[in-house]
Specification:
Elements lengths: L20 E6 H7 L7 H11 L1 H12 L3 E4 L8 H7 L9 E4 L10 H13 L5 E7 L7 E6 L3 H10 L13 H10 L22 E6 L18 H17 L2 E7 L2 H13 L2 H6 L3 E4 L7 H14 L2 E7 L17 E5 L9 H13 L2 E2 L2 E2 H18 L10 E6 L6 H4 L4 H4 L3 E3 L5 H10 L3
Helix pairs in contact: 2-5, 6-7, 12-13
């Protein structure tokens, strides 16, 4: 199903020139094609859990997995057989040892992932799909279980529990969450109440601004048809130079995707803007590989502490937009460049949107799938902008660099503690005195 050939090394190319492609199939079809429909999944899952074989295998892999790979003119093979045969062998002198930076390397505990997949297949999952991704070799293949109807898993809880409390810091936009999780699970809409409290940080400790235009007066529009234009990239460079000159400490700049961050970095480097920024603050870029993350964060923190600050170029939905705190001097300013709408041509997203259009219909005059698409963007924005202000004595500027953030429907989807203090600035000139005054008052 993933293009592998029995007896072949999974890392060998078996389909030369094949591009990565993703397809979705029904769960029943997956069970049939994979010929696991007649297996006792519950018994297999129970054995893995009771024997703790997943944890044992993980410990074995962590103990013997090399931190570097050996490369030569011949393709490097992998697998248990190769490992066992190499235990008593020595490597040739002409072989070079290089770090393994393969970002698509499977997790060290692949068996645990398999057990979780089998658990998903064995439950009463309602509407679901299997997402199959395959490429030129088996190691590029992926299998994912995609639950289309989360309310199916929530029905028993809603039906039997006296009260259900769901708490979170980035749950806006809330309407889709309420309707598709509670109401669709059978809850009476009158039972569902929404409570939102203010942020522990006082309003005077934050400066959220929408920048609609740049220093030259050009409109800041990072929609798909304008974001790659030289004029747009040049204007963004001028915006960043101005921000770097007046903001102390660390600045975190979020881009919609890794590809766009790479495009912007390449353009700003060629135009000399990165050099001008580095004359003031050292620049760091979010790595794609998890192994490099700690080092980049450590170097960034050191640069902030020992110099006039640093700039971190990060990605919305990446490794630094969730779970990492840029408190105090690490994040005195968060810059959100553009709006991180997901890839509309993703097979998974298209399937989810079609499912919502069929089961939910329209919401406030819009197709439910379109509402979901827009909400994914705003949830990602809300997750990212909260990285900087982490305790009641903290303070930071939050800059939305795109004129679309000035739209009322977008502002309404931001967290209340941001939207109530948000200022929309049509011209760039007044933003500099506001930012400068904000930080001077905090000195």
């Amino acid at each position: 199903m993933l293009g592998g050939i029995p007896g072949k090394d999974p890392a060998e190319v078996t389909n030369q020139g094949a591009k990565e492609e993703t397809s979705l199939i029904e769960v029943a079809d997956f069970l049939s094609e994979s010929q696991i429909y007649n297996l006792s999944l519950f018994r297999l899952i129970k054995y893995c859990n009771v024997s703790q074989i997943c944890h044992k295998l993980k410990g074995f892999v962590e103990k013997y997995q090399p931190s570097a790979s050996v490369t030569n003119s011949k393709p490097v093979k992998s697998g248990v057989g190769t490992f066992l045969s190499s235990i008593n062998k020595t490597e040739k002198k002409e072989e070079a040892v290089v770090p393994d930076n393969n970002e698509n390397r499977p997790p060290s505990n692949s068996l645990q992932s398999l057990v979780e997949l089998l658990s998903s297949l064995s439950m009463n999952h309602g509407e679901a799909r299997m997402v199959l991704t395959k490429g030129s070799k088996l190691t590029a293949g992926r299998i994912k279980f995609m639950l289309l109807d989360p309310a199916n898993q929530f029905q028993q809880i809603v039906r039997e529990a006296h009260s259900v409390v769901v708490a979170g810091g980035t749950m806006r936009p809330i309407a889709e969450f309420r309707d598709q999780l509670f109401v669709s699970a059978g809850a009476d809409p009158s039972r569902v109440t929404h409570f939102s409290c203010d942020h522990v940080v006082p309003g005077e400790n934050m400066l959220p601004l929408v920048m609609s235009s740049g220093p030259s007066g050009a409109r800041l529009d990072f929609s798909f048809q304008f974001r790659d234009k030289k004029e747009t990239l040049d204007e963004l460079g001028r915006v960043l130079i101005n921000i770097v000159n007046i903001v102390p400490g660390g600045i975190v700049v979020f881009f919609p995707s890794y590809d766009y961050e790479k495009l912007v970095s390449k353009h700003l480097e060629a135009s000399g803007v990165l050099a001008r920024i580095e004359a003031k603050k050292k620049i760091f870029r979010e790595p794609k590989t998890s192994s490099e993350l700690d080092k980049v964060l450590g170097d960034f923190a050191t640069a902030v502490r020992l110099s006039t600050g640093a700039v971190l170029l990060a990605v919305v939905g990446g490794k630094m937009s969730e779970g990492i705190n840029f408190s105090d001097n690490l994040g005195r300013c968060v810059v959100m460049v553009g709006m991180p709408y997901p890839n509309l041509y993703s097979p998974e997203l298209k399937e989810k949107m079609n499912f919502l259009n069929k089961t939910v219909g329209s919401v406030d005059g819009k197709q439910a799938g379109q509402v979901h698409y827009e909400n994914l963007c705003m949830k990602a924005v809300n997750q990212s902008v909260g990285r900087a202000i982490r305790h009641k004595g903290d303070y930071a500027a939050i800059l939305f660099v795109d004129h679309r953030y000035s739209r009322p429907n977008i502002i309404s989807q931001l967290p209340g503690w941001i939207s109530k203090h948000l200022r929309v600035v049509d011209k760039f000139g007044p933003t500099i005195p506001q930012i400068r005054k904000f930080f001077r008052e905090k000195e």
